[in-house]
């Protein structure tokens, strides 16, 4: 039997802000719909879940962070907060896809076997990924993409139910007509840190965790120019 790690998970990559902690198999979680308050809300949420579990940051074995895709600002907040928490105690970290977290929620809460996740990327584009359930876990089919909605190429089985998760379907409702078997999944409109915990446990067992120095956000869009704009940090 694999060891149960104490894992702290953080996400601020979309409109919601969330923190979750698993200790001895018990989960403690906080989530808020606070699009412009992530940097103010996240650390109090972390303090709250640690207090609920009656542990401290020093008891944490691994920090999982929402690595994107999502908003540039949200991803940067999540990664910088993770760096701040992990550096002092030299804690290992693991990046979890926001799309995978949404798919995991659909599998856990709605019993989904196939999931199409789409996040509104603005500029007439969506971030999207396709997942299947394997032993209760979200497994990526193909790759994550950013593209125009009409460019989505379905790799899932169109004869079976496909759960549609994310704000991309609100922005582009025509996506729900990709196949007759596509159905809205209200359980996973946004990523939630508590569904990152099981993905982080699995990723750690697969050796996908890194030192905090190797923390790697995923923007999907080419952001080289954006990073170098005058006045940006």
Briefly summarize what is shown.
Pfam families: TsaD (PF00814). Helix content is 28%, strand content 29%.
Overview of the structural elements:
It is a single chain. By secondary structure, this protein is α/β, with parallel strands linked by helices. Helix content is 28%, strand content 29%. The protein contains six helices and ten strands. Strand 2 and strand 3 form a beta hairpin. The relative contact order is 0.19.
Cα(first) to Cα(last) distance is 45 Å
Please tell me the overall pLDDT.
92
Characterize the largest beta sheet: strand count, sense, and whether it forms a barrel: 5 strands, mixed
Rg result? 17 Å
User: Strand fraction band?
Assistant: 25-35%
Regions with little confidence, pLDDT below 50 for 5+ residues: 223-233
What is the N-to-C succession of helices and strands? EEEHEHEHEEEEHEHH
The helix content is: 25-40%
Looking at the structure, what is the overall shape? Answer: globular
Tell me the total number of β-strands.
Answer: 10
Protein name: tRNA threonylcarbamoyladenosine biosynthesis protein TsaB
Family: Belongs to the KAE1 / TsaD family. TsaB subfamily.
Domain Gcp-like: 34-226
InterPro entries: ATPase_NBD, Gcp-like_dom, T6A_TsaB
Describe the protein's topology:
Blueprint: E1 7-11, E2 16-23, E3 26-33, H1 38-53, E4 62-68, H2 72-89, E5 93-97, H3 98-110, E6 114-120, E7 126-134, E8 137-147, E9 162-165, H4 168-171, E10 182-184, H5 196-205, H6 224-227
Parallel strand pairs: 1-4, 4-5, 6-9, 9-10
Antiparallel strand pairs: 1-2, 2-3, 6-7, 7-8
Helix pairs in contact: 1-2
């Amino acid at each position: 039997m694999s060891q149960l790690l104490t894992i702290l998970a953080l996400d601020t990559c979309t409109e919601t802000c969330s923190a979750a902690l698993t200790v001895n198999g018990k989960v403690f979680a906080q989530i808020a719909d606070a699009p412009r308050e992530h940097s103010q809300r996240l650390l109090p949420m972390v303090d709250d879940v640690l207090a609920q579990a009656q542990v401290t940051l020093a008891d944490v074995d691994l920090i999982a962070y929402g690595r994107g895709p999502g908003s540039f600002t949200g991803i940067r907040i999540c990664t910088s907060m993770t760096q701040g928490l992990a550096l002092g105690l030299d804690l290992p970290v693991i990046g979890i896809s926001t799309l995978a977290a949404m798919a995991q929620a659909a599998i856990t809460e709605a019993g989904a076997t196939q999931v199409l996740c789409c996040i509104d990327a603005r500029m007439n584009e969506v971030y999207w990924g396709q997942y299947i359930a394997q032993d209760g876990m979200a497994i990526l089919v193909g790759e994550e993409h950013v593209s125009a909605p009409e460019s989505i190429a379905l790799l899932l089985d169109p004869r079976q139910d496909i759960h549609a998760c994310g704000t991309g379907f609100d922005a582009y409702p025509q996506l729900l007509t990709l196949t007759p078997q596509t159905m809205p999944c209200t359980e996973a409109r946004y990523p939630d840190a508590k569904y990152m915990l099981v993905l982080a446990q699995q990723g750690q067992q697969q050796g996908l965790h890194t030192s905090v120095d190797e923390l790697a956000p995923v923007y999907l869009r080419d952001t080289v120019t954006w990073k170098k704009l005058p006045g940006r940090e």
